[in-house]
Amino acid sequence: MTSSSADSRRTLLRYGADLRTLFLLLALNALYIVQWLHLANTWYLLAMTYVLAVVALVAKHNHNHCATFRSDTLNSAFELWLSLLTGNTTTGIITAHNRLHHGQNNSQADFVRCSLVRYRYNWQNLLAFFFHSVAEMYRNRPDDLGEWRRTRPRLYRQAVVERIATIGFILVLAILDWKATLIYCAGPWLFAQWVLVTINLLQHQDCDFESEFGHSRNITGGMVNWLLLNNGFHTAHHCYPALHWSLLPEAHRRMETGIRGDLNYRSLWVCVWRRFITGEDWSGSR
Question: Rg (Cα) of the chain, in Å, rounded?
Fold first, then answer.
């Protein structure tokens, strides 16, 4: 065994890049504590909390595709921490996202399929998509807990612990200071959920779901991908869902010649503006 292999095996993290993930999550955790305890309450701290709450959901998404730690015990603890940081269980997205969205992208079984919204103007679709998706999920969501109890008992136990801990944590916070909990926790949690669900419309609307590389839209800018842990490289992520997020840019470069030029945007904000505000890059397809 080489020294580099031995060093790799001694590390707790599977990929060193996740030091960035942990740094951003610790920053969010600190912001929650400082604001909820009223040690510092300013608009810019709250704005940072909203942004980092989105990052926490991206980290949860990444972890469900590629475990962060080498140890099962550490991964379980990390999943519990992510649940408390986001106000929603980590295991709760496995069925909707890993199984149905990746397994049956934009089919009738996909809770975030673009065809859920059919309004005349695309900005209306942008605003309404989250509510249509949530309604679809609660109408048709499979009994994942019942299934896991029979087939994946360890995952079942993890899911139960996460649910009890998350609900209990929110109740305790609300009893102690409901106003601070609403402003500094619930607001960022709900905003982050809206962003992570709605971004599916940006990533897949007007794409060719039967195509090898044309099923997803990409945001390739360096700054946004540094903060959002390479979530912009969505074609590569769908082609290799178990690939660690730090390896997605290289995977994107390898397949870039096969991706339609109009599916790559350098800027997230330009993409949002052209697709949802002016509608100039929206085909109007349903």
Answer: 19
Which region holds residue 206: left if phi is over 0, alpha if psi is between -120 and 50, else beta?
A: left
Distance, CA of 282 to CA of 123 (rounded, Å): 10
pLDDT at residue 11 in the model: 86
Instruction: Compute the half-sphere exposure of residue 59: CA atoms within 13 Å on the CB side of its CA.
Output: 30
Tokens 């929110």 correspond to 170
Q: And the tokens for 260?
A: 């339609």
Predicted confidence at residue 47, as pLDDT, reads 98
116 contacts 166 by C-beta, under 8 angstroms: no
Q: Quote the pLDDT of residue 10.
A: 64
Task: Return the amino acid letter for 269.
Answer: W
Nearest to 66 by CA among 276, 230, 253, 256: 230
Q: Answer whether 245's CB lies under 8 Å from 66's CB.
A: yes
Task: Give the 3-state secondary structure of residue 219.
Answer: strand
Provide the CB-side half-sphere exposure for 166 (13 A, CA).
24
Residue numbers in the chain where pLDDT is lower than 70: 1-10, 285-286
In the prediction, which pLDDT does 285 show?
53
Q: Which of 123, 67, 102 is nearest to 284 (CA)?
A: 123
- Rounded to the nearest angstrom, the gap between the alpha carbon of residue 201 and the centroid of all alpha carbons in its chain is 14
From the number of C-beta atoms within 10 Å of its C-beta (0-12, 13-18, 19+), residue 241 rates as middle
Contact status, residue 188 vs residue 29, Cβ threshold 8 Å: no
Residue 156 CB coordination number (10 Å): 18
pLDDT value, residue 82: 98
Count of residues in the chain: 286
